[in-house]
Amino acid sequence: MKILVINSGSSSLKYQVLDMKTEECLVKGIVERIGEDQSDIKHKNKEKICENDKKIKDHEEALKEVMKLLIDPEYGCLKELSEIDAIGHRVVHGGEKFFSSVLINDEVIEAIEENSDLAPLHNPPNLTGIRAAKKLLPGVPQVAVFDTSFHHTMEPKAYMYGLAYELYEKYKIRKYGFHGTSHRYVSQKAAEILGKDIESLKIISAHLGNGASLAAVDKGKVIDTSMGFTPLEGLIMGTRSGDIDPSIPLFLLRKGYTIDEVDDILNKKSGLTGLSGISNDMRDIKKAIREGNKKAKLAYDVYVYRLAKYIGSYATILKRFDVLIFTAGVGENNPEIRKDVCDYLDIFELKLDEEKNNILNKEDRIISTSDSHVKVLVIKTDEELMIAKDTKKIVEKMGKN
Questions:
Q1: Spatial separation of the C-alpha atoms in residues 300 and 304, rounded to whole Å
Q2: Strand (E) positions, 35-174?
Q3: 165, 153 in Cβ contact below 8 A?
Q4: Residues in the chain with pLDDT values less than 50
Q5: What does the alpha-carbon distance between residue 268 and residue 240 come to, in Å, rounded to a whole number?
Q6: Strands 84-91 and 13-19, bridge-based pairing
Q7: Are residues 298 and 221 in the same domain?
Q8: 367-388, pLDDT tens digit by residue?
């Protein structure tokens, strides 16, 4: 079975084709700046890379370009598009309607649309990708895989806010959590690497990219996660503030800032960018620290401190923890951050093997010592493979029925 995985953003379309016999990625790519005067296409198969620029007006046109590349004799992986057996879509917000991945039909599309109020920057472009694929590959089954669904095992005590209950009833204001596909993948992978049944493990997973979140996973089920009603809650991130006093936006509004300006500050001008005044990229922050920049050092210290504090609180609600996972761009590629976070966690008898931690490779691996009470792992996240696995499972079940 060959599955096309699509992750459609507001002005981008990321894609992969996976052969599910081997779970191998055959091609991957991204179309960026859709709708602008000049769009960028970056496409890679096992042997060659193709990059070109052209004007692409919308996601349907972007997907047409992708399909041309998929069957291109030099850069593609298919002889014809009929080899695509199914399409898996990343959808950010499933609200309270979707507790797992689902086969897409008209009712599902309508429900995703209804949840667009909860994710106005994400669900509409996700739907655009679904509609484009439906038009260009009619009859090919499509599956929606939701960022929020893995977190639906949280109990009300974890997902409810201290607000009037009527706000939950009226507007479904509650914690949902995000990055669920990544947390699910690395939790399962950790159990596999350790040779343990996931049912026996208490895991804290740290997805650290430009966006960042933690998940506390007990017996394979999430009991809490750091992102909330939106992806703004929780950890310090590249440009997002994470947790703040909720009165701060009100204070800024009373000082004359507009709603859009406050939204922009919290989501795009805070976090590492806001504290350092330099960049949202941890590589830039570390370079500035080496050059003696005090604001960069402050941004780094706040980032690490908040992360360690959250891990400690999750260890409390788990009542112990067996596994700590670092994943995503920052988590996978920054031994200094891993060490500095783990230095805060001595109370849990967590011992990092510094030699293993400092190895700069892309392999999934254990980086704690053999006598560490908590096993620490670095795992490369693979959300596309998780989406493809869910898609395969649902399509096979559909065939049996």
A1: 6
A2: 39-45, 49-54, 84-91, 102-103, 142-146
A3: no
A4: none
A5: 6
A6: unpaired
A7: yes
A8: 999 999 999 999 999 999 999 9
Q: For position 337, which CATH number holds?
A: 3.30.420.40
What pLDDT, in 10s, does the model give residues 65-103? 999 999 999 999 999 999 999 999 999 888 888 889 999
Residues facing residue 91 across a β-bridge: 146
Give CA torsion, residues 316, 241, 281, 335, to 10 deg. Answer: -10
Residue 147 catalytic? yes
Q: What is the pLDDT of residue 400?
A: 60
297 burial type by CB count under 10 A (0-12 exposed, 13-18 middle, 19+ buried): middle
Task: Return the residue matching tokens 């869910």.
Answer: 390
Same domain? For 367 and 259 the reply is yes
CA dist 377 and 357 (Å) reads: 9
Q: Which residue segment(s) compose the domain that 317 sits in?
A: 197-383
Q: Which of 117, 147, 343, 346 is catalytic?
A: 147
Indicate whether 178 belongs to any domain: no
Give the H/E segment covering residue 218.
Answer: strand 212-218
Closest CA to 61 of 115, 136, 127, 152: 136
pLDDT value, residue 401: 58
Q: How many helices (H) and strands (E) does the chain have?
A: 15, 14
CA–CA distance, 310 with 303 (Å, rounded to integer): 11
Please indicate, yes or no, whether residues 6 and 119 belong to a single structural domain of this protein.
yes
β-partners of residue 216 are 204, 224
Q: Sheet holding 24-32: strands in order across?
A: 49-54, 39-45, 24-32, 13-19, 2-8, 84-91, 142-146, 102-103
Q: Judge contact between 320 and 200, C-beta under 8 A.
A: no
